[in-house]
Amino acid sequence: MQEQQTIYGTVTQIVFQNTENGYVVLRLLARDGEEVTVTGIIPNLGLGEELICNGTWITHPSYGEQFQANSFERRLPESARGVAEYLGSGLIRGIGPKLAMRIAETFGAEAFDVLQNEPERLTEIRGITARKARDIGKQFTEMSEMRLLMDFLTENGLPVSLTPLLYKRLGVAAVDALSENPYMLCDEYYGIEFYMADQLAAHLDIPRLSPERCDAGILYTMRFNLDNGHTFIPVEKLVKAAADLLSDDDVVMEPERVEEGIMRLESNGQLVREFICNRDAVYLRVMHEAEDYLANSLRVMAEREYQYDFDLEELLASLEADSDIDYAPLQRKAIVAAAKYGVTILTGGPGTGKTTTVRGMLDLYEALGLTVLLAAPTGRAAKRLSELCGMEAKTIHRLLEAGYANGGRLAFQRCATNPLECDVVVLDEVSMVDVVLMQALIEAMPQGARLVLVGDADQLPPVGPGNFLRDLIGSGCVPVIALTEIFRQAQQSDIVMNAHAINLGQMPAPSRKDGDFFVMKKDNAADIMATVVSLCKERLPRYYGLNPSQIQVLSPARRQGAGTIPLNRMLQEALNPPATSKPEKRFGDTIFREGDRVMQVRNNYDIVWESLDGSETGTGMFNGDVGEITQIYPAQECLIVRFDDKFATYTYDMLGELELAYAMTVHKAQGSEFEAVVVAVSNGMSRRLLTRSILYTAITRAKRLLVLVGNGDAIEYMVKTNARNKRYSALRTRLRMIDPEQV
Ligand SMILES: Nc1ncnc2c1ncn2[C@@H]1O[C@H](COP(=O)(O)OP(=O)(O)OP(=O)(O)O)[C@@H](O)[C@H]1O
């Protein structure tokens, strides 16, 4: 093992600095007068800082001898020259080298004290207004606080990328809060894995069998399972999973202790335990509230029937006569039901006429003088719905005016006390909506408004918890109109016909020369990916006149086989190769380059956007929004992404919210449609992902052309595997249980 050494010195040059993870390569003027290269994680480093580095000397194959620091202590420079260098190194907006020099000359070694405690004294320097002084002081204070926080995170092996999140929510109190409860990092806001928080807890000497650790492990296990779509966990499974999580070679968390923990969390209101669906079920409180609320409110809404002093069927017939449409009997039934009942479900596969039926509903509502709001779970689905219905549709989040409340938690402006203004809400792509969001929507509906739910129950279930659409249909409590007839026009499409065949467990029909559905069989992932690239780059543009931007590649998996990560790397290389004219920015393993297709991968209500013509500005980008990087500004450390009709700015520290999107997972593509879709399926992908509903969802994303490139066995396996991953959810049972007399 290399001998640990300590070196002291002053930072004279920052050769490389990664702003996300704090990795730096620097030159240090050591106390013995020698200048050496040092590498390590030292966030927010400035020139002139004094460092005491502990580490080892290594010989780098290209750069020779350098000191690899594994821990360090740092001190701000004390000499006037050091102060000038530090302030002038670009850390503070508004201070360049010249101004830094003047600050150092005026205040000498006291400069940092002035910046932190008496920034108004900066006005003694010519050219600094009171406002600028305040701004500089504020930045310096924030930087100092953030440095302390970063130092704390680094010392405890936690990612420095948590700094902005923690600082935004807790400010200067973050270190104290973490020291008091390191497990707060496991909540959905920070999303840190249990073992990391556990590591911090160990540094803080929190006993491993302590109730705090036990309770944190139980809650972590509960949240982790929500990601698998469950709304509750049977107690015996929870006990086992939490005991496993909390035990290792050194410590055994007995199941009895976990049971005690569950009782503690039950009595302090964080968990709810109920015997339901023949199970001893444990819920996170919010999840129990969501299910319970949905069951009660939907039951009440479904009981509601609206009376008209004229015949709705006749009114619809007269509307039909005025238009060139002749609805099928089931469509007519759905349109009338949507005006008559409190809740109506309209479901069916592709080409069965759902959209046409929704348009019929809108016509009837108009004739009845009812105000309608249209919504869908994703931006793309909302856009498509707007186009098809000729009226504005919003995402559910936008409809409910989502934003961040104090402390950074998601909050909806539209709610029970400030309801939406409408007589009807029509929600499309309901298969994607989880129980928590559904609860928020129903809470925001005004008393007496109708709800129309449209979706295809054979699509993938939502990413979030529950199985809302299937549970509601299965409960039998709500009128359901299931369209089954494929309209003649839609029958011309092999995409539609094969989607229905696959849904019935049949292999897709062989490709027709003039058809819109092709299967290309390739044996291994490398051949599959090479074929996908050639389709996107040459063959589809050449034969179908498609622009590569109209083609979307989908894969069930991310890393395995022909997953989205290797596919994105290859597609980026082929469709947007590096060029000196195109600036790029590396973030983790991804290189973002001007011209790249990217996707926003979580909801962020704070991202500022501007419409293309600059006439409108707003905030909020949503999970699944796809755009193109139009500019990268290295000096300003930001890049601009164009999403359909708007530009959004991302600073480099936000790049964790973007992914390359030449290829995306089928899950991410839910609710979106594309001109042409290329689906890659290979052996080597987890069998959990090779299911019929994933293949069906992938295929139904294509409007004009679908090419399925894959291993024959894997495709057949998908068609035959109707396994829906089991979700623990009790909504269906609750809906059936409730006695309408009691509500
Ligand atoms: N009553 C009808 N008479 C004749 N054609 C119809 C009727 N209803 C729908 N169609 C036609 O059937 C096709 C599919 O209808 P529509 O787009 O409404 O179905 P959909 O279920 O929304 O399909 P998808 O989910 O694939 O978008 C369209 O071409 C539409 O014009």
Describe the protein.
Helices cover 38% and strands 24% of the residues. The protein has 4 domains: 5-148, NigD-like N-terminal OB domain (OB fold (Dihydrolipoamide Acetyltransferase, E2P)); 181-288, Arc Repressor Mutant, subunit A, CATH 1.10.10; 304-489, P-loop containing nucleotide triphosphate hydrolases (Rossmann fold, 3-Layer(aba) Sandwich); 493-602 and 655-720, Rossmann fold (3-Layer(aba) Sandwich). The protein is globular. The strands form 7 sheets. A 7-stranded antiparallel beta sheet has the order 23-22-26-25-24-21-27. It is of the alpha/beta class. It contains 26 helices and 30 strands. The N and C termini lie far apart (72 Å). Helix 9 packs across helix 10 (255-267), helix 11 crosses helix 26 and helix 13 (329-340) packs across helix 14. The structure holds adenosine-5'-triphosphate (ATP). Adenosine-5'-triphosphate binds at residues 325-328, 331, 348, 350-356, 487, 489-490.
In a nutshell, what does this entry contain?
This protein is of the alpha/beta class.
List keywords for this structure.
binds adenosine-5'-triphosphate; alpha/beta; 743 residues; OB fold (Dihydrolipoamide Acetyltransferase, E2P); six-stranded parallel sheet; Rossmann fold; seven-stranded antiparallel sheet; Arc Repressor Mutant, subunit A
List the topology elements.
Layout: E1 5-17, E2 23-30, E3 35-41, E4 50-60, E5 64-75, H1 80-87, H2 97-107, H3 111-117, H4 130-155, H5 163-170, H6 174-180, H7 194-203, H8 211-226, E6 232-234, H9 235-246, H10 255-267, E7 271-276, E8 279-284, H11 285-303, H12 312-322, H13 329-340, E9 343-348, H14 354-368, E10 372-376, H15 379-389, E11 393-395, H16 396-399, E12 402-404, E13 410-412, E14 424-427, H17 435-443, E15 450-455, H18 468-475, E16 480-483, H19 488-491, H20 494-503, E17 517-521, H21 525-544, E18 551-555, H22 564-575, E19 584-587, E20 590-593, E21 597-600, E22 604-611, E23 617-621, E24 626-633, E25 638-643, E26 646-651, E27 658-660, E28 663-665, H23 666-669, E29 674-681, H24 692-699, E30 702-710, H25 712-720, H26 731-737
Parallel strand pairs: 3-5, 9-15, 9-16, 10-11, 10-14, 14-15, 17-30, 18-28, 18-29, 29-30
Antiparallel strand pairs: 1-2, 1-4, 2-3, 4-5, 6-8, 7-8, 12-13, 19-20, 21-24, 21-27, 22-23, 22-26, 24-25, 25-26
Helix pairs in contact: 1-2, 3-4, 8-9, 8-10, 9-10, 11-17, 11-26, 13-14, 18-26, 20-24, 21-22, 24-25
Bound molecules: adenosine-5'-triphosphate.
Adenosine-5'-triphosphate binds at residues 325-328, 331, 348, 350-356, 487, 489-490.
